[in-house]
Amino acid sequence: MNSILKLGYDLLSTPFATKVSDAWLMASFKRKTKRKLKDNEWLPKVTIVVPVYNVERYLALCLQSICAQNYQNLEVILVIDGSTDNSLAIARKFQSKLDLHILEQDNAGLSAARNAGVRAIEKTDYLMFLDSDDALAPQALHSMVNQVINTGSDFVVGDTTRMKGVTRLKRRDTRAVFAKGTISSTTLLQQPQVIQDVTAWNRLFDFKFYQSNQFVFPEGMFFEDMALMTKAYVRATKFDILAQTVYLWRVRTEGDKSITQQTNDEQKLADRITALRQMQGLIKAGVVLGKTNDANFEAFKDRIWNHDIELYKHVPGARQLFDGLMKY
Q1: What is the DSSP letter of 153?
Q2: Based on the domain organization, do 17 and 142 belong to the same domain?
């Protein structure tokens, strides 16, 4: 039975299935996009930073998903990070549909593009990151903004649905984070399982919190968000867990794989180990601040065992590197 299910899943995850899925999503987002928004609706300002590098195949869907949010007080800063394809031309077509500011820079990597986008913000209330091959789920912005307005939390982290072809599955590695439902005004000490979710793109930050902590993505390495999001958990007075899909994360079925799909690269393995060591150091520092305890170390070990080791189990010597992180 498992082999039959796998065969069915594989058929639904082909490049052709991806094209069918994207066409359906695009039509759905266009139907949901309102031509005119309510002028009398007061909403705090949200800024979305979108780094772009050679994603002409996916960018229009990404930007249409933002249009479909129907969020009036919205700014999008799109950073063209040395793209050599048609991404810039595609982005310009959306300038009449969105408050869209386009920055261009030589290719410097994902972290540098995100940091450049943040530096370009003149004034906003909330900040979000969106990768240009992914999409926002319908009502994501309204749901996250309503959540943090009601609680006054430093940020909210929402659930993610994994897109591969026409298949839709909740992220397996973060299911424990959202298993208890929506949790308001909590902390890393109270919810140690959130260490499973350290991606930058499925959360909405209070921009004052982000600025006051001088958060910057480390440049020149992969998995740049893992330690920074751990730092955000440690630094937060309180945050929210929203058990609702806010982000559609693409698993590519054609062309170059995304960074998270590339598990045969020695540099990416080395950078993941570095990021995990940094996370471990932040958890240790949190003990002194009263922000973490033994339960957080156990949750950290669980994520390594259930997720990180699993990703690299086919790589010779990787297990020994991960085993060294299991001690504290």
Answers
A1: -
A2: yes
List of residues 6+ apart from 283 with CB closer than 8 A:
195, 230, 234, 292, 296, 297, 300, 328
Residue pair 57/132 in contact by the 8 Å Cβ criterion:
no
Residue with the two structure tokens 């077509």: 93
220 and 292, same structural domain?
no
Q: What is the domain count for the chain?
A: 2
CA 52/CA 221 separation, integer angstroms: 17
CA–CA distance, 151 with 149 (Å, rounded to integer): 6
- Beta strand 155-164 with 203-206: parallel, antiparallel or unpaired? antiparallel
Domain of residue 303 covers: 266-323
Q: Is the pLDDT confidence value at 21 over 90? A: yes
**In this structure, what DSSP letter does residue 2 have?**
H
Q: How far apart are CA 280 and CA 299, in angstroms?
A: 11
Select from 228, 208, 195, 224 the least CA-distant residue to 131.
224
Q: Is residue 260 part of a domain?
A: no
User: Has residue 328 been placed in a domain?
Assistant: no
Q: Is 230 helix (H, G, I), strand (E, B) or coil?
A: helix
Q: Of 253, 275, 306, which residue sits at a domain end?
A: 253
* Average pLDDT of span 117-128: 98
The whole-angstrom separation of Cα 168 and Cα 165 is 8
Tens digits of residue pLDDT in 185-230: 999 999 999 999 999 999 999 999 999 999 999 999 999 999 999 9
